[in-house]
Amino acid sequence: xxFVGEVLEKITRRLVKAPLHRVVSPTKGTRYSVGYFQGVSMxxxxxxxSAMYKYPQEVLDMQRAREGREGDTTEFRLVESDNLPAxxxxxxFKLKAHPLVAYRFYPALxxxxxxxxxxxxxxxxxx
Length: 127
Known about the structure:
- There is one protein chain.
- With 127 residues, the chain is mainly alpha-helical.
- The chain folds into two domains: 1-23 and 32-83, no CATH class; 85-127, no CATH class.
- Helices cover 43% and strands 0% of the residues.
- It is extended.
C-alpha cells in the first residue's frame, strides 16, 4: 500500500489524492508495519512545481468524474505558503502548531508567529 502526501496532491492539483492517514490497531494479535517517508526537496516551491505539469484532457476528465462521485466541488487553490521553499513552509507550519517549541528552540523566529508572546494557556509552562 502506498499513500501519497499532501505535497504531491498539491503539485498535481489534486489529480493524485492524499488520503486521510489513520491507523487501526487490531483488537487481537500484533500489528506490524514499516513506515517510509519521502518528501520533496527542501527548496521545492509547490506553486512552481504545480505549474510545470500539463495533463491530458482524458486524465482531467477522470479526475472530474472522481470528484463528482465523491461530492468534492471545492476549487483547487494554492495558498501563500506554496510560494515558499517547502522546507520553510513545513517549519512555519510546525512552529505555528507548537508555540513552546518555537519559544524554546527558535527564539529568532518566535516573534514572527507569536508577536503578542506565548498564548496564555502556555505562559505558565515557561520557567
